[in-house]
Amino acid sequence: MKRVAIVGSQWGDEGKGKVVNYFSKNYEWIVRYSGGANAGHTIYIDGKKYVNHLLPSITPNGYSKGFLGAGMVIDLEQLINELKILEADFPGISSKIYIDYETFLVLPWHKEEDELRESMRKKPIGTTKKGIGPAYTDKVSREGIKLYNIFDEKLLKERLSEIYYLKNKIYSGKIKSTDKDVFEYLLKVKRDLDKLNVNFASAVKMGDVFRSTSVLFEGAQGVLLDLDFGTYPFVTSGSTMAHGVSSVGFSTFELDKVMGVLKAYTTRVGSGPFPTELFDETGGKIAKLGNEFGATTGRPRRVGWLDLPALRYAKIRSGLNEFVITKADVLDGFDEVKICIKYDVEGKIKEIPDSSYDFYKAKPIYETLKGWKSTNDVNFLKYMAFIEEFTGVKINYISYGPKTEEMCTKNNMIMRIKG
Ligand code: GDP
Ligand code: IMO
Ligand code: MG
């Protein structure tokens, strides 16, 4: 497979980082194409834990290189922090990282705006406060700074002063960072990036390079957090789906496949509808066993049973061709597990929501399956067969622990179980 996208099939935190890291050794380029430091992708390298917020989940001592595409909103200070952590263990790693000149920058005032807006909302979204919404808003309303602006100090100063003039009016002087502060901040981060030897690149020029080799696209968040198709307004502001690869100049027709990462149960951080959410002891037990705390904010994740109508919706919306199932080991030892097969939406039975609006009204209808002692148990095979039958998507890989190597093909697992 030369060009594959790996996306989250639920509300994020499915284990995309781990899965991308597992496959990264087979690809020359690992490309992040959307979102920003709201993402938190956990990987283990030589047994040590790293959390990537902006960096693609490459294996630092492997041969792949990382690309940050134009659909992202990048907090350069955060990127530098992540690079410094990796540099300490893998000197020279930064020279394997390339950033598209067209990427949009998250500036200190975007984080202030995120805080302010959340505090003023009647119903807060529960954002990560990483400035994502305000940055994408500025991008669309054409009030922002792209990476290439930092190479032209005169123009940068002018642009920042124009933007600040407007922001100061809109927020009635509540924004503390001034255009001068942001200018100084950008000069400093540019110096730091130069010291680290990060590459700045044009996706236009890279087009031929990408097409001549293997590329793995690393999605951020999950389909149900997508700006267009997720549970609006409780969504993020970027494209969380495979379509997002267009921001690196690719069409989805150029993808060999789209892999959906699927957690064996469901989690969500922040506000918004969640039909299979558990409020009982079982939910607490799954959250504890799964260590369900946000990798970016540390907030407890809401937990619920697996939701097949939501998965069918994700499959159609993002054109998922196969699944990788993660974290089924968390449910090891449960006598039984529930799985939502249909929704009751105001008296109408639906196997798939018609629009994201249905998620607000859906009452889950469950089927109960036997639990498994370990993922090497035939009952786990039955659980996977059930998911495959109800979604029409094959599960081809199984992740059974946080470490990169804790992963196998389903065929291997079947051989192990059936002997
Ligand atoms: P991402 O945002 O989709 O990359 O996922 P996160 O890193 O935010 O959250 C997934 C969490 O589950 C991380 O702590 C991973 O180390 C962990 N994890 C990933 N796959 C597995 C798995 O198969 N089993 C277990 N027990 N943990 C896993
Ligand atoms: P990864 O890539 C889980 C959620 C936030 C909030 C909503 C909007 O690690 O799966 P934002 O800061 O983006 O404006 O917040 O989206 N959210 C995530 N939830 N995993 C993520 O990323 C998320 N990125 C954003 O909690 O509900
Ligand atoms: Mg995460």
Automatic annotation (TrEMBL):
Source organism per entry reads: Geotoga petraea
Binding of Mg(2+) occurs at: D13, G40
Q: In which pathway does it act?
A: Purine metabolism; AMP biosynthesis via de novo pathway; AMP from IMP: step 1/2
Q: Where, per UniProt, does this protein localize? A: Cytoplasm
Cross-referenced CDD domains: AdSS
Instruction: Show the catalytic activity.
Output: IMP + L-aspartate + GTP = N(6)-(1,2-dicarboxyethyl)-AMP + GDP + phosphate + 2 H(+)
Q: Which residues bind substrate?
A: A295, T296, T297, G298, R299, P300, R301
Q: What's the protein name?
A: Adenylosuccinate synthetase
Q: Which residues of this UniProt protein bind IMP?
A: D13, E14, G15, K16, N38, A39, G40, H41, T128, R142, Q221, T236, R299
Q: Which gene encodes it?
A: purA
As one GO molecular function, the record gives: magnesium ion binding
